Automatic annotation (TrEMBL):
Enzyme Commission number(s) from the entry: 2.1.1.-
Name of the molecule in the record: tRNA 5-hydroxyuridine methyltransferase
Residues the record lists as binding S-adenosyl-L-methionine: 34, 64, 81, 109-110, 129
Gene3D superfamilies in the record: Vaccinia Virus protein VP39
Gene: trmR
Function: Catalyzes the methylation of 5-hydroxyuridine (ho5U) to form 5-methoxyuridine (mo5U) at position 34 in tRNAs.
Keyword 4Fe-4S: no
Amino acid sequence: MNEYEDYIAGFSELSNPLLQEMEQYAALNHVPIMDRSGMETFIGLLRIQQPKQILEIGSAIGYSAIRMVEALQNTSVVTIERDADRYVSAVDYIRRSGFEDRITIIEGDALDLDDEVLNTTGYDALFIDAAKGQYKRFFEKYSRHVAPGGVIYCDNMFMHGAILLEDEDIPKRNRTMIRNLKAFTAWIMQHPAYETSLLPVGDGILIAVKREE
């Protein structure tokens, strides 16, 4: 976090004790949740868009889903999580948040789920925040569920600076993931069906607006 993000973060302290608890839990248990500056920007974009229905790939412990419905009173979220332990934690946090009627969580691998599992095919927004090396596959599988004019958001596009490194400077275990992420970025930035922007906030947020048909 740079000095500008520190400055901005000073105006965005969370008053919700449950969200504070979730941030502490994530930090202690190495659960990847969206960092504060990225989340505040994301929420700001959603407030402008005002989506009614959001599909999220990668619930983790439910932090971003709760943040979204807390900020957008007329919004519902369907979120998918494959990790069993995180799914259980997310279910508990969502119950405690009081937003069970507006957040539907599905346990399973998003790449293996049948379309029938989803509640609708006309989502206004899709938020991808799962396995970074699979972003293109997530995008190709789920973008068809986004209505024309809808927006697809992707987090961690910079992977904490790894996308700027040469291949030999990236740990071997991460090389394929970073290659895939770079390839996805180049692909979507040139995709004729989307108006795409990449924002240098948080860990990098990609915004792809689906062109009207």
